[in-house]
Amino acid sequence: MAGAHQTPSAMMKPLAKLFKKLQTFIKCTENRTSILPQKKIIHGQPEEEEFNYQTTRCLSSYYSIFVARLAIMVMLAILIGMLTMLTWHFTKVYTMNSINSLAYGLRYELLQRPILRVWNILNSTVEITMAQVKLSEYVISHYEKPLSQEPAELHQMMRDVTWALFSSRTALDAITISYRNGFVQAFHRDHRSNTTFYIYCELVNSSVNQGKAHHGHIHKPRDRPASAIWYRERLDPVTGEKKGDRRQIPPDDLIKIAGLAEVQDGAASWRVAVSKFTDSPLLSAALPVRHPSGGSIVAAVGVTTALKSVGQLMKELVDFHSGYMYLTSLEGYVLATSTDAPLLRNTTGRKLMMATDFEDHIIRSGAEWLQRAYGNKFPINHEVHAENVLLGNQRYYIDSFFLNLTRLPLVGVIIIPRKYILGKVDQIGFTTLVILISASICFLAIGCVCILILTSGVSKAMKLRAELISQLDARRRAEASSNYKSQFLANMSHELRTPMAAVIGLLDILIYDDCLTNEQFATVTQIRKCSTALLRLLNNILDLSKVESGKLVLEEAEFDLGRELEGLVDMFSVQCINHNVETILDLSDDMPKVVRGDSARIVQIFTNLISNSIKFTSEGHIILRGWCDGSNHSSRPECSEAQKMSQCALRNRSKQHESIVKKEYQKNDKITLWFEVEDTGCGIDPSKWESVFESFEQADPSTTRMHGGTGLGLCIVRNLVNKMGGEINVVKKDGQGTLMQLSLLLGMPEDCTVNSFQTEFGKYSLKVLLALHGKQSRSIMSQWLREKGFFTWEASEWNGLTQILQQVFQENMQWSTSEPINLSRIRVVPRENSIHKMGGLDILIVVDISLLDQSTNIWKQQLIFLDQYRGKAKFAWMLSHDTSNAIKVELRRKGHFLMINKPLYKTKMTNILHAIVNEGNFENEKGSNQLNSSMDEDLHESHDLDSIHFDAISSDVSDISDMDNRDSKINTFYSEEEITERNPESHQPSYSNSQKISTQRVPLDKIIKKPNILLETENLINMSKDFTETDKHGGIIMDYSCRYGYNKDNKKNMISSITDNLQDIKPQAVVGNEDAFLKLNQPHDGGESVIEQEYQWNVKPTLYNKGDIKQKMIAKTSMASPGNTHAEGMEKQLSTERSVELAYRGSRLLENQDMHYSVHKNDCVALSSLVPDQNPLGGLCILLAEDNPILQRVATTMLEKKGAKVIAVGDGMQAVDAIKCMLCAEENKRQNSTHQDDVAEGLSELQKYTSFDLVLMDCQMPKLDGYEATKTIRNIEAGTGLHIPIVAVTAHAMSSDEAKCLEVGMDAYLTKPIDSKLMVSTILSLTKRDV
Amino acid sequence: MAATALKEQLNGLVNSMFAEGLLDEQFQQLQMLQDGSNPGFVAEVVTLFCEDSERILTELTKLMDQALVDYSKVDAYVHQLKGSSSSVGAQNVKLACIQFRQFCEENNKEGCVRALNVVKHEYYRLRSKFETMLQLESRIQAYENKQQN
């Protein structure tokens, strides 16, 4: 029971725990729901949605988990419950069944035994009675005969016999024989006192002889009670001997004597009697004793047996088995019970009691229950088996059996407490049940806990998964939206650019307006600047979005990487000089000259990077380094010093293994180029190194205030770099500033050539004195030169320079002649020595013009000082853009014509060296050739002059006439050309020729200089038109006249030496000159050319090297029309822009900071168009192919307003036809003009036929669209060598469309609606050289 | 005096058209192109535009009425209309055309019909304004001629 007590409490604990857990869980979820809204309030709008989303998701997942848990638990509970029930049921039922059957047997057996006892008693009683009867009959018959015999004998005999019987049956209570005559003999055994009595009566009338009397009347019926005296004798129970005296007793007092009356019918009678002396009922049987002969009844024999033994038996049984038993008669009188309760009632004599009235309450209630249940309608055999009868407080089995004796049917009832039979079973069953239940609850609890633990794991996983899914979802959405954004922006490019173009165009129109006040003009200019800035920003964003949306297509074309970068550095250096920042280009020698890639994008990358650096660098330097990594992406050392060293090492190594590197290039057509952009600006915080490449990200937000910008530049750079298969990142740098490192994967052209000029200077043992202001560039340059085998000195300021000069030349003085400086003498010395010796002039001094003190006039003294070294060394001057013209003139006057613009980089240095070496050679050769010439001095001088001239003219003419340009170029490099590559005798005449011309040029040059100075010092706009015009007219006309003459001479002279193709040039040149004359009345062109003149004359010589000239010559001569090769056009464009830009800057110092405006072509033209000009397109004839009548009309009007002649056609077919006609005419003209003897005829031919200078081609047209038409035109042109510029006009603004346009052979691209300024600038850029 | 009033009226009309978004800056460019050398330029262009648009709209209506719509043709016409309207500066017509083209690309007939109606609506609205404008201009012209005489 203790276990049973413990188990419930043990069971309660997990239950309680579980309950608690559930409660906390519910609370938890409630808390969560209740906390979330607060969070929402705190975090505000953007997170709200997400939170909502999460909350609902979270809650729903909680609920689902909760429900799942509950379901699993319920299922577990059901399972365990069923198992328990089944187990309990089977154990219980089987036990119960078996025990029930056993119990039934037991009960039956139990009841059967007393009944059997009763039965035995009855039988034995009957037997005894029968025996007594038989014996009595015998005795009577024996004594019948002698009737006279003493009845006493008979009685004695009977007594003995009866005693014998009586003593043999101890169970007998009494045997009585009552004779007919009323004599009674009886033996009685008192069981209580264990005494045996003999009872007899004596008849009163035969009082003398009792026996006799008795005998005598034996067969006679007599009134027995009448007179009889009853006696009782005590007997020895064993022997039957008389033990005591007889005592008189009242009749029938002790026992009931069966009388004759009872046996009248002669059958045995049974009944239950009650004796006075015994508590128990008695069973009495009576049989008559018949006369043997007569058959009359002579006596009645009665036997009584106490039923007490039955009761005792019952008691014994009950003692052993517990329970209650009783026997009743059919009527319900209790005959025997297992209790000690009295069976008889003493109320009115001793009587049997009904079972229902029994004192023992169990028996009574049992009897009552039976009565109630069955009443009088007992089943036939009276058998009742009832279980689970509640009597009192206990359950009992009640079984009753029926014993159908004749005359005495008996009913036995047994009441056995259930506990006795099933007590243990029930207990065990209960215990089992309890154990089972507790076990199952334990299992359930453990199971639930397990489920909770397991599902909590699962639910965590589920939660994580749900979060992951939601994250993925969110990411997808975000990506989609950002993609949409990019797509949108990319698609919007047209829509965005159009209004901007309109705004800018309208502003230009406004600027044109003459009636603006100065303030208005300033405001409009400001607006225009802002608009341009906005457009640039838009372009940036659109570029970015284009890259991001994957619409940017990188083109793959060969280009000269070095030249592009040099151009870039040139451009930025101008900007940097004002900032006191040096811009240095440091490209390693092993870099391939020509690579394949998208040059525009690469330039954009470096433009962005450098402009970014410039923005943040207030002083110091910006270095653009580049090197080639071959196949191995070797790690770069961190430290800048070590970097340089390693770079050097790298270079050296690559030089040594050049052939190996070359092989590698050939193997894989891709090459990885590494670049570094280093500055000494404010630097970037290391934590921002990654984020600066993000959109709209700036390292320091405050920089926006100081420097402006949107933070898009670096993002675009990174996107572009990634697109080109490279990487960009910020690298740790020693000292202040930022170091950006990027790699680009570029294609290699098929015939790759690595720069291979290095070794050729080795033989000249040159010494170089670098007097440069910038420390970094100087050190890099000197290092490079030293690697090349030059000896270098470095000087950073004037004093240093003078010191070095004095030092060096004092030594030299001692070494060379001590005579005063005589140029011819000095030249003579090397002549006599070897060819390669530079003749004492083996010292090159590169002087930065900024070393001179320009603020005062000291520079003149300084120049004079330097002049004394002129003969001993070669000077190369580095000019900056703002170097005053006076200095230049002075320099030129002094014979320093080797001038270059800042910054100094390797290509320029190489060119200088080339020039020096060649000059040296030239002098040597000339010396050897003209040993006997007496005009040594003059020759030299004129040569110097000549080269000045060439510079001036080359720039001058370049814009007016390409033909002239070409010629001038030929002349410019004339001297170098002929000396280096050809046999001297063929050049000799032309040289002298040029000499002649150059002498004529001197005054001309001066005239040309005049407007230059004006342009520099004065505002361009305020410049008097007339003045310029007349002045220039005069100058240029003169120039042309003499040039014309020169050309003629030149041609004649050159027939023998140059190929016949050159002959074609002449008429063209004439035509070109004619055209140029016609154009001279346009001040714009003139002005522009003059501006350019100033700046080009420095650039040109350095840009063109020998190879280029050769190429150009061949190209030119093969071309009939005054066209130009693309490369040249590009260069020219570049130089034009730059020069205009510079002019603009010079004139408008206020706008210095907007320098990079003019990077864009259209801007540049817009600026140049500030020069008042009504007919920029004057004289041009334009073919307009446009199907839309409205657009046709509009465009025609626009163009006509600009002075162009427009012929409009409706579709591509007509356009092609028109071009065909023109080409035929051209062909004719060409054929005619090849005869070259009649210039006038050529001219007239030209005027007769309409010649289109340009085609504006709509892309979408009926019959033949723009692309097809262009293809056709290009096909037609294929044989002729002509190239008519075709400009696409399309409503599509995508770069892919642009690419498509350019692919089919169009030269430029305009978007609808047409912006007139852009159109004009485009047309001008394409046609200018054709004029 | 009357001429100046008329001019003011004309200016007001044009300005209101700009304000309503019927016209955009392209029209300004057109106006700018008109000067002494080609006095009726704007009128000419507008007339051209009207004629052209009328033709295209008739074609489009015809095409849309057919059971099987040839979307490529429709697209070509709409593109033309878009080009001409954008070069005149008829902004609303242009926008409607862009919408129309989108439906066209989707081959959405219902949308096309709706878009066509929008285009027509915008066009007629614009045309009525243009007519008023042209009338005004012609009257101004007449006055000026008279004054010269």
From TrEMBL, chain A:
Gene Ontology terms for molecular function: phosphorelay sensor kinase activity
SMART domains documented for this protein: HATPase_c, HisKA, REC
Keywords: Cytokinin signaling pathway, Kinase, Membrane, Phosphoprotein, Transferase, Transmembrane, Transmembrane helix, Two-component regulatory system
Enzyme class (EC, first level): transferase
EC numbers on record: 2.7.13.3
GO biological process, one term: cytokinin-activated signaling pathway
Biased composition (Polar residues): 986-998
SUPFAM superfamilies in the record: ATPase domain of HSP90 chaperone/DNA topoisomerase II/histidine kinase, CheY-like, Homodimeric domain of signal transducing histidine kinase
Catalyzed chemical reaction(s): ATP + protein L-histidine = ADP + protein N-phospho-L-histidine
Pfam families attached to this UniProt entry: HATPase_c, HisKA, Response_reg
Domain Histidine kinase, chain residue ranges per copy: 491-748
Transmembrane segments: 66-90, 396-416, 428-454
Key word Repeat present: no
Domain of life: Eukaryota
Gene3D superfamilies, A to Z: 1.10.287.130, 3.40.50.2300, Histidine kinase-like ATPase, C-terminal domain
Chain intervals for the UniProt region annotation (Disordered): 976-998
Domain Response regulatory positions: 1181-1327
4-aspartylphosphate carried by residues: D1258
Keyword Nucleotidyltransferase tagged: no
Role this protein plays: Cytokinin receptor related to bacterial two-component regulators. Functions as a histidine kinase and transmits the stress signal to a downstream MAPK cascade.
Stated name of the protein: histidine kinase
Gene: LOC105055085
From TrEMBL, chain B:
Gene3D superfamilies noted in UniProt: HPT domain
Any one cellular-component term (Gene Ontology): nucleus
Entries under InterPro entries matching the protein: AHP1-5/YPD1, HPT_dom_sf, Sig_transdc_His_kin_Hpt_dom
GO molecular function: histidine phosphotransfer kinase activity; protein histidine kinase binding
Subcellular location(s) of the protein: Cytoplasm, Cytosol; Nucleus
Alphabetical keyword list: Cytokinin signaling pathway, Cytoplasm, Nucleus, Phosphoprotein, Two-component regulatory system
Phosphohistidine, modified sites: H79
Domain HPt: 38-143
Protein origin, superkingdom: Eukaryota
GO annotation, biological process: cytokinin-activated signaling pathway; phosphorelay signal transduction system; positive regulation of cytokinin-activated signaling pathway
Domain observations: Histidine-containing phosphotransfer domain (HPt) contains an active histidine that mediates the phosphotransfer.
Function (record text): Functions as a two-component phosphorelay mediators between cytokinin sensor histidine kinases and response regulators (B-type ARRs). Plays an important role in propagating cytokinin signal transduction through the multistep His-to-Asp phosphorelay. Functions as a positive regulator of the cytokinin signaling pathway. May play a regulatory role in salt and drought tolerance during plant development.
Protein's UniProt name: Histidine-containing phosphotransfer protein
Organism the protein comes from: Elaeis guineensis var. tenera
Source taxonomy: Eukaryota, Viridiplantae, Streptophyta, Embryophyta, Tracheophyta
